[in-house]
């Protein structure tokens, strides 16, 4: 993969849990880094969830190799949010392929 193909500017975010005092926690998303990436759609479908139709798109997001990216994180591009499902390392360790899901609610 050539660097010139990384044309999408994404924000890598990690969850931060804050106790709510009642035994639960609220989750906020904290920016970790701004990254250049290539977002490629893979598939899409619709499902019923809680008496409504929910759309789901899957994407392959390619980016330069970076340590510490895990499936608990997400990538954001404006109002679009890509939840990381899996992180695959290339044999050359120059790039990462993140399999992500984008959901419409």
How would you portray this structure in words?
By secondary structure, the chain is mainly beta. It has a single domain, classed as Thrombin, subunit H, CATH 2.40.10. Helix content is 0%, strand content 70%. It contains no helices and six strands. A six-stranded antiparallel barrel has the order 1-2-3-6-5-4. The relative contact order is 0.24. The mean pLDDT is 89.
Strand content: over 45%
Which architecture would the CATH scheme give at its second level? Answer: Beta Barrel
* Whole-number mean pLDDT: 89
Largest sheet features: 6 strands, antiparallel, barrel
Helix content: under 10%
SS summary, helix count: 0
Would you tell me which CATH topology applies? Answer: Thrombin, subunit H
Give Rg in angstroms.
15 Å
Q: What top-tier CATH class fits best? A: Mainly Beta
Structural class: mainly beta
The CATH homologous superfamily name equals Bacteriophage SPP1 head-tail adaptor protein
Shape: globular
The total beta strand count reads: 6
Distance between the termini: 33 Å
Low-confidence residue ranges:
none
Quick take:
With 105 residues, the protein is an all-beta fold. The chain is 0% helix and 70% strand. The chain has one domain: Bacteriophage SPP1 head-tail adaptor protein (Thrombin, subunit H).
């Amino acid at each position: 993969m050539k660097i010139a193909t990384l044309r999408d500017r994404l924000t890598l975010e990690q969850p931060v849990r804050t106790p709510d005092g009642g035994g639960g926690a609220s989750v906020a998303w904290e920016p970790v880094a701004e990254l250049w990436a290539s977002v490629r759609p893979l598939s899409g479908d619709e499902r019923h969830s809680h008496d409504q139709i929910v759309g789901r798109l899957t994407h392959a997001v390619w980016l330069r190799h970076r340590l510490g990216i895990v499936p608990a994180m997400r990538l954001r591009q404006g109002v679009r949010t890509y939840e990381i499902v899996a992180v695959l390392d290339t044999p050359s360790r120059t790039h990462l392929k993140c399999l992500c899901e984008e959901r419409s609610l």
